[in-house]
Amino acid sequence: MGKLDNKVAVVSGAARGQGRSHAVNLAAEGASIIALDICADLEGNTYPLARREDLDETVRLVEKEGVRAHPVVVDVRERSAVWSAIAEGVETLGRLDVVVANAGICAMGKEQTIQSWSDTIDTDLVGVFNLVQASLPHLGEGASVIATGSLAAMLGSATNQGPGGSAYSLAKQVVAQYVNDLSVQLAKKMIRVNAVHPTNVNTDMLHNEGMYKVFRPDLKEPTREDAETAFPAMQAMPVPYIQPQDVSNLVVFLASDDSRYITGSQLRVDAGGFAKAKPWRG
Questions:
Q1: Among 25, 37, 5, 60, which Cα is nearest to 248's?
Q2: Contact 21, 245 (CB under 8 A)
Q3: CB-side exposure of 38: number of CA atoms within 13 Å?
Q4: Which residue ranges in the chain fall short of pLDDT 50?
Q5: Which of 47, 168, 178, 241 is labelled catalytic?
């Protein structure tokens, strides 16, 4: 018996990284999965995004857990497309109980343009709005909405990181407030809304040239090995990053009845990054 038997979850950005991990871990607890991903690059992003074969691999891993998977290639920036994707998934799998608004980009490095701002806001912020709003008509009592935030949301503005970095920080801050305020509205229906805020995570969003340059501005062409000496500066614990599984453990908890009275929360998986950066204000 799994904690999510007979339930259905939608996960955006499901083709790889945190999204794949969340989808597979939810499936391991019995949930069938509507797996969404754009499976294409964005003009304003500074590293390659997932491909259709990545989404197919997520489907394979989900189905290996003995549940159903319904993949949809969709751009979360496109409102009508997201509404159609959710409706199609619900029609196929019969219901919707868990929403994981995870799709995101973080364009960093010298290749940023003003398009980096637009693509980041439209993906990381508008994409969350679109997924959640499209899901609301299908959710009933006991449902759970989970948004992926970031330690960046907790640390404030990042206007010195170029248009992509600045937009990422802003988007995650607004997502945090959106979760807070929406949770009050949905509490009357016994629907929970929470955000998870990871620090550096061992995914392609972290492991790319643009991000390496952020952590090692002293080097012209830093390598992963160079950046990994600086990654631990983000955390209080002496680790360079956490694993997608570390975030998925919290996502599964928030999706299940184990957290039935937790809503409106901003839950950090940050190896002490926030406590290190922000003095206690009791």
A1: 25
A2: yes
A3: 19
A4: none
A5: 168
Between CA 209 and CA 46 the distance in angstroms is 8
Closest Cα partner for 12 from 262, 251, 260? 251
DSSP the chain: --TTTT-EEEEESTTSHHHHHHHHHHHHTT-EEEEEE--S--TT-SS----HHHHHHHHHHHHTTTS-EEEEE--TT-HHHHHHHHHHHHHHHS---EEEE-------STT--HHHHHHHHIIIIIHHHHHHHHHGGG--TT-EEEEE--HHHHH---GGGHHHHHHHHHHHHHHHHHHHHHHHHHHTTT-EEEEEEESSBSSTTTSSHHHHHHH-TTSSS--HHHHHTTGGGG-SSS-S-B-HHHHHHHHHHHHSGGGTT--S-EEEESTTHHHHHS----
Sign (positive or negative) of CA dihedral 254, 256, 259, 264: positive
Convert the pLDDT of each residue in 36-55 to its tens digit. 999 999 999 999 999 999 99
Q: Is-catalytic flag, 47?
A: no
From 152, 151, 148, 149, select the one nearest 161 (Cα to Cα): 152
| pLDDT per residue as tens digits for the range 149-199 | 999 888 887 777 899 999 999 999 999 999 999 999 999 999 999 999 999
Structure tokens at 15: 């083709």
pTM equals 0.96
CA distance 227 to 23: 29
Q: Do the Cβ atoms of 242 and 206 come closer than 8 Å?
A: no
CA atoms of 16 and 24, how far apart (whole Å):
11
